[in-house]
Structure prediction request, 409 residues.
Amino acid sequence: MQIYKVGGAVRDRLLGIPVTDIDRVVVGATAEEMLALGYRPVGSDFPVFLDPKTGDEYALARTERKSGRGYGGFVFHASPEVTLEEDLIRRDLTINAMAEDDQLNLTDPYHGQRDLAARVLRHVSPAFAEDPLRVLRVARFAARYAGLGFKVAPETLELMRQLSDSGELEALTAERSWKEISRALMEDQPQVFIQVLRECGALKVLLPEVDALFGVPQPEAHHPEIDTGVHTLSVLEQAALHKQPLTVRWACLLHDLGKGLTPEKDWPRHIAHEHTGLKLIKAVNERFKAPKDCQELALLVGQYHTHGHRALELKASTLLELLQSFDVYRRPQRFEEFVVACEMDARGRKGLEQRSYPQADYLRGAASAARGVAIQPLLEKGFKGPKLGEAIKRERLKVLKAYKDAASV
Prediction:
């Protein structure tokens, strides 16, 4: 029995970056031998065992064979005869197909170390094209390592293109797709993930609503970058630069989908795109079964982001309606995420990345003022039921008018 670290642990150590996950493969052992040593079995698809003391995972070396459509359409074979090289060749990229023993002796049959030095993301074997999930994984790795200069090899991009054209991407489950998309959005350069998907044709399969934004112009006075797709990538880039959470990044990706529905005769203006885009945002949310907080924020940002940009001009009554829409009294964090999403939208414009966004603090102040209305005095005056609600609304409108007047001085 021989045990090796494989995949990301080896890759990241060689890159000199922190190792977070360690995968181990066991060569020359049977499941019975692992059980006899006290390892606990987990998983049903292939033999993976947990160390009884540390809880670390150990997988038996295995081969795989395509047996159906999609990510799950594989038959796995594990036995003591499976070599380390046979286990490594089934992996996606050469930089993930290296192994090392406890003495850090490297096994690199597919030249992963060479591709690390060349900053290339290259597939290990033609079997890469059997797994549609690898299109998303490679695009995610491109987003993760873009800052180090990594690019997708042309021949790998071609295989990704073939997968995108094959119809295999449609076989991916919503859960698997969302797992990759959400992880990619949290990488350092998530906009690269979208770019790579677009380059290989996967974006128009998985997110046609986003793909449709490229080539759609906006007024140059407000958007020097002009292209709506380019703007969306820039907004996503700003969200990552400012370390925003997944909810905000998801909303940033989807906020302008309505512009893809604007008739060409109306370009570059996009009247009411906030409302026309809601059905598209809802469709994307449902397609990937996004978490509820991501779904809600994406819809709210899509509908109200232009309100955010015009915050200083809004009437007190409109401002109150905006705050009510977000339920800022019980869910203040959701409104804060809306504010920062609007700021990322404003910064995601060519040459305007550093421009101040006074609307953010203005909106925060308005929310604070409205939340500051005391309910107890109204109860003491005898208000209750619907009349209490109306009295609270009147008081909040009053403080917002005072807040707006003070801010304009």
